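Subject: sequence -> C-alpha coordinates, single chain

Hey, anyone have a minute? Need the predicted structure for the following. Not urgent.
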Amino acid sequence: MNIVVIAPTWLDRELKESTEVLRKVYGKEAMIEKINEDKGRYFVDQNRNQADGLRMLAYLRLLKDPSLYTVWLTEEDLFINDFNFCFGLAYGNVAIVSTHRLRDRDMEVYISRLRKELSHEVGHLFGLKHCSNWRCVMYFSNTLLDTDRKTEDLCSNCRLALSRVSKSLPRR
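Reply:
Had a minute. Here:
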Protein backbone atom coordinates (compact mmCIF):
# COMPACT_ATOMS: atom_id res chain seq x y z
CA MET A 1 0.00 0.00 0.00
CA ASN A 2 1.21 3.49 -0.83
CA ILE A 3 1.59 6.40 1.57
CA VAL A 4 0.35 9.86 0.60
CA VAL A 5 1.51 12.85 2.64
CA ILE A 6 -0.63 15.97 2.29
CA ALA A 7 0.97 19.24 3.34
CA PRO A 8 0.70 22.98 2.71
CA THR A 9 3.12 24.24 0.06
CA TRP A 10 4.93 26.42 2.61
CA LEU A 11 6.09 23.30 4.49
CA ASP A 12 8.19 22.32 1.46
CA ARG A 13 11.57 21.96 3.20
CA GLU A 14 10.08 20.07 6.14
CA LEU A 15 8.24 17.77 3.77
CA LYS A 16 11.34 16.82 1.79
CA GLU A 17 13.46 16.19 4.85
CA SER A 18 10.84 14.39 6.93
CA THR A 19 9.29 11.98 4.43
CA GLU A 20 12.64 10.26 3.81
CA VAL A 21 12.16 8.55 7.17
CA LEU A 22 9.31 6.48 5.70
CA ARG A 23 11.69 4.84 3.23
CA LYS A 24 14.30 4.34 5.93
CA VAL A 25 12.00 2.82 8.57
CA TYR A 26 9.23 1.19 6.53
CA GLY A 27 10.73 0.74 3.07
CA LYS A 28 7.96 2.90 1.58
CA GLU A 29 8.18 5.98 -0.60
CA ALA A 30 5.78 8.80 0.16
CA MET A 31 3.75 10.39 -2.58
CA ILE A 32 3.55 14.11 -1.84
CA GLU A 33 0.34 16.06 -2.32
CA LYS A 34 0.88 19.78 -1.84
CA ILE A 35 -2.08 21.96 -0.97
CA ASN A 36 -2.38 25.74 -1.08
CA GLU A 37 -4.46 25.95 2.07
CA ASP A 38 -4.19 24.13 5.40
CA LYS A 39 -7.85 23.29 6.00
CA GLY A 40 -7.06 22.42 9.60
CA ARG A 41 -8.26 25.89 10.56
CA TYR A 42 -11.82 24.85 9.67
CA PHE A 43 -11.74 22.38 12.54
CA VAL A 44 -10.64 24.81 15.27
CA ASP A 45 -12.75 24.73 18.42
CA GLN A 46 -13.15 28.42 19.29
CA ASN A 47 -13.28 27.72 23.04
CA ARG A 48 -9.94 25.90 22.98
CA ASN A 49 -8.29 27.62 20.01
CA GLN A 50 -7.18 24.17 18.87
CA ALA A 51 -8.21 21.92 16.01
CA ASP A 52 -10.36 18.89 16.82
CA GLY A 53 -8.20 15.99 15.68
CA LEU A 54 -11.03 13.47 15.55
CA ARG A 55 -13.12 15.69 13.29
CA MET A 56 -10.09 16.20 11.05
CA LEU A 57 -9.57 12.44 10.80
CA ALA A 58 -13.24 11.90 9.92
CA TYR A 59 -12.98 14.55 7.18
CA LEU A 60 -9.81 12.97 5.80
CA ARG A 61 -11.41 9.52 5.73
CA LEU A 62 -14.29 10.88 3.64
CA LEU A 63 -11.93 12.57 1.20
CA LYS A 64 -9.25 10.01 0.59
CA ASP A 65 -8.97 6.73 -1.26
CA PRO A 66 -9.30 3.89 1.28
CA SER A 67 -6.69 1.87 -0.62
CA LEU A 68 -4.03 4.43 0.36
CA TYR A 69 -2.46 5.37 3.67
CA THR A 70 -2.81 9.14 4.00
CA VAL A 71 -1.05 11.49 6.43
CA TRP A 72 -2.08 15.14 6.73
CA LEU A 73 0.59 17.54 8.00
CA THR A 74 -1.05 20.56 9.60
CA GLU A 75 0.22 23.60 11.46
CA GLU A 76 -2.86 23.63 13.70
CA ASP A 77 -2.52 22.72 17.36
CA LEU A 78 -4.46 19.46 17.82
CA PHE A 79 -6.55 18.13 20.68
CA ILE A 80 -8.57 14.98 21.18
CA ASN A 81 -11.22 14.31 23.82
CA ASP A 82 -9.72 14.78 27.30
CA PHE A 83 -6.13 15.45 26.18
CA ASN A 84 -4.81 19.01 26.30
CA PHE A 85 -3.02 18.41 23.00
CA CYS A 86 -1.62 15.71 20.77
CA PHE A 87 1.30 15.69 18.34
CA GLY A 88 -0.59 13.42 15.98
CA LEU A 89 -3.16 10.68 15.71
CA ALA A 90 -4.13 7.85 13.38
CA TYR A 91 -7.18 5.76 12.69
CA GLY A 92 -7.70 3.18 9.97
CA ASN A 93 -5.86 4.36 6.88
CA VAL A 94 -5.53 8.06 7.80
CA ALA A 95 -3.33 10.03 10.17
CA ILE A 96 -2.61 13.63 11.13
CA VAL A 97 0.65 15.13 12.37
CA SER A 98 0.70 18.64 13.80
CA THR A 99 3.84 20.73 13.41
CA HIS A 100 2.53 23.30 15.91
CA ARG A 101 4.28 22.05 19.07
CA LEU A 102 7.23 20.44 17.27
CA ARG A 103 8.76 23.73 16.14
CA ASP A 104 12.10 24.87 17.51
CA ARG A 105 14.54 27.67 16.72
CA ASP A 106 16.97 24.96 15.67
CA MET A 107 15.69 23.63 12.33
CA GLU A 108 17.47 20.29 12.82
CA VAL A 109 15.65 19.70 16.13
CA TYR A 110 12.34 20.58 14.47
CA ILE A 111 12.95 18.25 11.49
CA SER A 112 14.03 15.44 13.84
CA ARG A 113 10.80 15.80 15.83
CA LEU A 114 8.72 15.86 12.67
CA ARG A 115 10.43 12.73 11.31
CA LYS A 116 9.76 10.89 14.58
CA GLU A 117 6.10 11.88 14.78
CA LEU A 118 5.53 11.09 11.10
CA SER A 119 7.17 7.68 11.54
CA HIS A 120 5.15 7.08 14.73
CA GLU A 121 1.79 7.80 13.09
CA VAL A 122 2.64 5.71 10.02
CA GLY A 123 3.51 2.89 12.42
CA HIS A 124 -0.07 3.11 13.71
CA LEU A 125 -1.36 3.01 10.13
CA PHE A 126 0.55 -0.25 9.70
CA GLY A 127 -1.06 -1.66 12.84
CA LEU A 128 1.61 -0.99 15.47
CA LYS A 129 0.60 -0.07 19.02
CA HIS A 130 2.44 2.12 21.52
CA CYS A 131 5.68 0.60 22.78
CA SER A 132 7.11 0.62 26.31
CA ASN A 133 10.70 1.05 25.02
CA TRP A 134 11.43 4.78 25.39
CA ARG A 135 14.00 4.63 22.55
CA CYS A 136 11.48 3.20 20.05
CA VAL A 137 9.67 5.56 17.69
CA MET A 138 6.40 3.90 18.75
CA TYR A 139 6.85 5.08 22.35
CA PHE A 140 4.00 7.44 23.32
CA SER A 141 5.24 11.04 23.46
CA ASN A 142 3.49 12.92 26.22
CA THR A 143 6.02 15.77 26.04
CA LEU A 144 8.63 17.11 23.62
CA LEU A 145 11.28 15.56 25.87
CA ASP A 146 9.78 12.14 25.10
CA THR A 147 9.96 12.91 21.38
CA ASP A 148 13.49 14.30 21.59
CA ARG A 149 14.95 11.32 23.45
CA LYS A 150 13.44 8.53 21.34
CA THR A 151 14.96 7.50 18.01
CA GLU A 152 13.20 7.57 14.67
CA ASP A 153 13.56 3.79 14.36
CA LEU A 154 11.48 0.83 15.47
CA CYS A 155 12.81 -1.35 18.27
CA SER A 156 13.34 -5.06 17.55
CA ASN A 157 9.95 -6.00 19.05
CA CYS A 158 8.05 -3.49 16.93
CA ARG A 159 10.04 -4.47 13.83
CA LEU A 160 9.09 -8.09 14.46
CA ALA A 161 5.43 -7.14 14.95
CA LEU A 162 5.51 -5.19 11.71
CA SER A 163 7.18 -8.01 9.78
CA ARG A 164 4.23 -10.22 10.64
CA VAL A 165 2.00 -7.77 8.80
CA SER A 166 4.22 -6.86 5.89
CA LYS A 167 6.89 -8.95 4.21
CA SER A 168 8.07 -5.97 2.13
CA LEU A 169 9.95 -4.22 4.94
CA PRO A 170 13.72 -3.82 4.71
CA ARG A 171 15.65 -6.23 6.92
CA ARG A 172 18.33 -4.85 9.22
